[in-house]
Specification:
Elements: E1 12-13, E2 16-17, H1 24-30, H2 33-42, H3 44-52, H4 57-92, H5 99-138, H6 145-174, H7 179-207, H8 211-242, E3 251-252, E4 258-259, H9 288-300, H10 312-326, H11 338-348
Antiparallel strand pairs: 1-2, 3-4
Helix pairs in contact: 1-3, 2-3, 3-7, 4-5, 4-6, 5-6, 5-8, 6-7, 7-8, 9-10, 10-11
Length: 350
């Protein structure tokens, strides 16, 4: 055979793939499963380029659905094995139970998940591909949706295989003190970063784009999802964050009023406390209006408002605080609890 440059492996630059076809022997090897399993570590570009020509959306969906089906099947086989082992142990010690009913329930759940999980995985895979495809086209990509999906499905299958293989590894690490937990945390992070790298290369080859733009395609939806996730968390904990006192143990509000009890409104007139209901209670066991009266009495240094507090412990605390603020020991006489009363007199100088 005449030696020429047409059969040589095309050169790859950092900014993107150059044209050309893969040698027949290398292409044949790259289509074998063992090759691409190791090839995604050694030469991911070769693996993706070998799949690009014949890749299609059907091929991608078969890979994703098949991979998810096998993973779920393995999971339930392990569960069934453990369940059978537990039943055998129960029979040895003559323990009776509803093992048969549980087995039927487990089998029914397994059949349900074997159908639903792959379908849900396919839907999520198509949505993820659609988002990446739109971003890639906006940034100047020229690849087909099916070709892109085919390349990314290889990564999904790769993730599933590694996930199964890492299960025993993670179990072993769980029994190693300190360093086992650190390694168990770092390995998923490292693999996650490597998967981003693989997806960047796949987009680069599918759309004939440079690596920088391909990385933007991948990282943009990831950052958006992370931002949305953080936003949901912040929105969920916002009521608790706003309840944290900021100055002197209380949040200082306009007009000099302070919210001593998060969730209890600061009022300008004691009579407004009658309108405070259980919707302002948060986690308090004391009636909200009692807290409102106490808050008003302390903010405005009006001990007379404490008389309207119904909860005796809160009322004593209200008198104590106002007496200290006003440095008036006579207010301490309204306290029923002898220890609090004595403490109040001591502080106010009686």
């Amino acid at each position: 055979m005449e030696d020429n440059d047409e059969g040589k492996m095309p050169e790859m630059t950092f900014w993107g793939p150059e044209g050309g076809k893969m040698p027949v022997e290398e292409e044949r090897l790259s289509r074998s499963t063992p090759f691409w399993l190791t090839g995604l570590f050694t030469d991911p570009r070769a693996v993706f380029k070998s799949d690009l020509e014949e890749g299609s959306i059907i091929q991608a969906l078969v890979r994703v659905a098949g991979g998810l089906f096998v993973v779920v099947l393995l999971f339930f086989l392990i569960i069934a094995f453990l369940f059978e082992w537990i039943n055998s142990m129960r029979s040895e010690v003559n323990v009776t139970g509803s093992g048969g009913n549980t087995g039927v329930l487990l089998a029914g759940l397994g059949v349900f998940v074997l159908v639903i999980y792959p379908l849900a995985g396919i839907i999520m895979f198509l949505l993820w591909n659609a988002v990446l495809y739109i971003i890639a086209r906006i940034l100047g990509g020229s690849g087909a949706f099916g070709k892109q999906a085919s390349l990314l499905s290889i990564i999904i299958l790769f993730q599933l295989v590694l996930g199964v293989l890492l299960v025993p590894f993670e179990i072993v690490l769980a029994f190693i003190p300190c360093i086992g937990g650190v390694i168990g945390m770092l390995v998923p992070i490292g693999l996650g970063l490597y998967f981003i790298y693989l997806e960047t290369i796949a987009i680069s080859i599918a759309h004939k784009m440079d690596v920088l733009r391909s990385f933007i395609v991948i990282i943009t939806p990831i950052l958006l999802i992370m931002g949305l996730y953080i936003g949901v968390i912040l929105a969920a904990i916002d009521p608790y964050l706003s309840a944290i006192p900021s100055q002197g143990g209380a949040n200082v509000l306009a007009g000099g009023g302070r919210t001593l009890f998060p969730g209890i409104p600061v009022v300008s007139d004691a009579s407004e406390c009658e309108k405070v209901g259980q919707d302002n209670a948060l986690h308090y066991t004391v009636p909200p209006k009692d807290l409102c009266y106490t808050q008003f009495a302390i903010n405005n240094k009006q001990a007379s408002a404490c008389a309207k507090v119904s909860h005796q412990g809160t009322k004593d605390a209200c008198y104590m605080e106002t007496a200290v603020l006003l440095k008036d020991s006579q207010i301490c006489s309204s306290i029923l609890d002898s220890k609090i009363k004595a403490n109040c007199h001591q502080i106010t100088g009686y």
